[in-house]
Amino acid sequence: MISATCVAPVNIALIKYWGKRHEDLILPVNDSISMTLSTDELCAKTTVTASESFETNRMWLNGEEVPFEGSPRLQRCLKEVHRLAVANGSQKVPPSWKIHIASVNNFPTAAGLASSAAGYACLVYSLSRLYDIPLNEELTTVARQGSGSACRSLYGGFVQWHRGALDDGSDSVAKQIAPSSHWPNMHVLILVVNDERKKTASTKGMQQAVKTSQLIKHRVDKVVPERITQLREAIANHDFQTFAEITMKDSNQFHAIALDTFPPCVYMNDVSHRIVSFIHDYNEIMGGYHAAYTFDAGPNACLYVLEENVPHLLDAIQKVFPSDSFDSDTYLRGLSVPKVDKSHKIDPAQRNKIDSLDIIAKNAFRYIIHTKVGEGPRELSADNSLLINGLPLEKEK
Amino acid sequence: MISATCVAPVNIALIKYWGKRHEDLILPVNDSISMTLSTDELCAKTTVTASESFETNRMWLNGEEVPFEGSPRLQRCLKEVHRLAVANGSQKVPPSWKIHIASVNNFPTAAGLASSAAGYACLVYSLSRLYDIPLNEELTTVARQGSGSACRSLYGGFVQWHRGALDDGSDSVAKQIAPSSHWPNMHVLILVVNDERKKTASTKGMQQAVKTSQLIKHRVDKVVPERITQLREAIANHDFQTFAEITMKDSNQFHAIALDTFPPCVYMNDVSHRIVSFIHDYNEIMGGYHAAYTFDAGPNACLYVLEENVPHLLDAIQKVFPSDSFDSDTYLRGLSVPKVDKSHKIDPAQRNKIDSLDIIAKNAFRYIIHTKVGEGPRELSADNSLLINGLPLEKEK
């Protein structure tokens, strides 16, 4: 019996992946760029165990067993890992041994964060440790076949997923643009918004967008390639102004494409749009971009903000989106935030303008997660295992 | 002293006008097509009086005097009318005579309907009656300079506003595609949605879209020209299926462009999007398009529906968007609606599906206006005048 336990991060796209050119291989219609978030606040954790004695492949997700055979994507990942093990001459695990997998997220699914990206990245990385396969571009093509954006979670820092040109997808790989140490003060606030609408699943939404949006082609052909170049340069130069503008514009355009889909897909809600409007007002007061929003296929806002600006931004958020639970332990999660030093760094005129902002909405968020740029997946010691003798420790939450 | 009193209709765009190629002349970046609504339910009413004894031009809007000199658009319209009067050899009103104008809308501004289009169409049409100028394409260029889409309200039925190519705008004219008698059973339900957000004024929104949206060019160059051709054909053939699909797609795309604007413009709200989702569900149950939504620069839905389908649609609306005031006199306004004959016209399986739809939102609408395709502006008899000896009758509401 042989085991590996790993954690893998969530990543948030700055330039969005939306639309596939091949459904099964999960080949995207355009390049995307993301930032990897620290696993200290948000991560998937996976244990994979292989044994001669296991009769079938089995899997537990957040403590519940799920049918292994029911997931073609899961099976494809495992098959690809087997292929890479052979290609790499790895003989650590005999190919006949079945595997057991247990995976948990340390954040509630309700947060609407891209749990499948972290989950598949963690699965593929764990399998790569088990089968002794190096982390390289080829491994990102395996994660990509589990969940497209999972390929970006195999690296820390800033990551580009290249669309690729080949039909077999072998050049549709993720590559690191810059490690997290390149821009360590890049922080993130995730505003988790209350929402109960049924939404189009993103796989379906993408398919429909490619089929029916008349604007997506222009985005893919013209807009994204330019933005990729500009954003890479902004990251290289620590140019937060350009970084913020491209990030916000690309989030808006992704949602515009979703709306141009027929029937339209709507992921942001009134609260999301109020956050957008507030961030523009806030940046105007600050005389430049101090915060940039981005929204994935859901209503939650992800705000990029440099560390030194976090206290001021959070102070303003609490002013316009006050919450009765602001002082509770569970409202503001993750990294601690120093108190705003009112005498420091912010102009009195700006302070006055912030202080005179009206309340936009009360109790609009379930909670706020404060995190930052982080590293890629890593292996943990055996005492972190989620499986004992191939079976779950206990029902994980 | 000489007077004319007229009414002019509201029009609702099927293919949207969004973006100018010339700000002052109000020349659009693309053609648009609209349907004119019956003046029985919604109209602007204007009296223009010219007299040798008037010392200055004056104007009253909904009973309140407004500064005449403060409106360059108003002055431009008057100047253009003077020019046309000379060109047409009309000597009915000496050019030195000043004019008094009174204008009212028979619908609350709160309805968020395009009151300026009806208002300027009514002003220009009334002036044309006063100065004895024929209604022709040239007159539509005058209304266009008051408020772009006003040019479309000079005709009944289905109307196309041609973008034109000339710099002076002389070929940016409205032309009737088909009179209201061509498709007399084309009805409309306007769902007036509660909303209190501040919104970007449409003039500003358009300017920003042209400046910052990277998708608008593709819409203007490729999408709209195709849709214009298809919609004209659909109207010619009474093809409600194509009519509905193009109308819904173009509404969605207009809002997509607004969202792709930077900062983004958001006109629809959560209720608007729930209406969209409901209409798609409803059409799916009905096995074809029975209703088509369109949204202008605000949250209100305008639903196109053939007369024979109005009772079923309204019944379903009341099921999913129930209102406590449904039976009040002021909730369902305009044309009367025959009761749904449950034994008639609707398949029992469909009826069951409609009956089992869940409530989406309660009291989501202020009221509903039921109207239909209608005629262009017309002159009323002198006893309808809003001015007596050049002064308002009373404070109009």
Can you give a write-up of this model?
Two copies of one chain form a homodimer. Chain A has 397 residues and is of the alpha+beta class. The first copy, chain A, folds into two domains: 2-183 and 377-392, Ribosomal Protein S5, domain 2, CATH 3.30.230; 186-372, GHMP kinase, C-terminal domain (Alpha-Beta Plaits), CATH 3.30.70. Helix content of chain A is 33%, strand content 23%. Chain A has nine helices and 19 strands. The first copy, chain A, has helices at residues 72-87, 115-130, 137-146, 202-212, 216-236, 240-260, 270-286, 310-320, 348-355, and strands at residues 2-9, 11-15, 20-22, 27-28, 32-36, 43-51, 58-61, 64-66, 98-105, 158-161, 174-178, 186-193, 292-295, 301-306, 332-334, 365-372, 378-380, 387-388, 391-392. Chain A has a six-stranded mixed beta sheet with strand order 8-7-9-6-1-17. In chain A, β15, α9 (348-355) and β16 form a beta-alpha-beta unit. In chain A, α1 runs parallel beside α2, α1 runs antiparallel to α3 and α2 (115-130) crosses α3. The relative contact order of chain A is 0.18. The model of chain A has no long low-confidence stretch (mean pLDDT 93). The interface between A and B is medium-sized, with 30 and 30 residues.
Summed up, what is this model?
By secondary structure, chain A is an alpha+beta fold.
Task: Give the arrangement of secondary structure elements.
Two copies of one chain form a homodimer.
Chain A: E1 2-9, E2 11-15, E3 20-22, E4 27-28, E5 32-36, E6 43-51, E7 58-61, E8 64-66, H1 72-87, E9 98-105, H2 115-130, H3 137-146, E10 158-161, E11 174-178, E12 186-193, H4 202-212, H5 216-236, H6 240-260, H7 270-286, E13 292-295, E14 301-306, H8 310-320, E15 332-334, H9 348-355, E16 365-372, E17 378-380, E18 387-388, E19 391-392
Parallel strand pairs in A: 7-9, 15-16
Antiparallel strand pairs in A: 1-6, 1-17, 2-5, 3-4, 5-10, 6-9, 7-8, 10-11, 12-14, 12-16, 13-14, 18-19
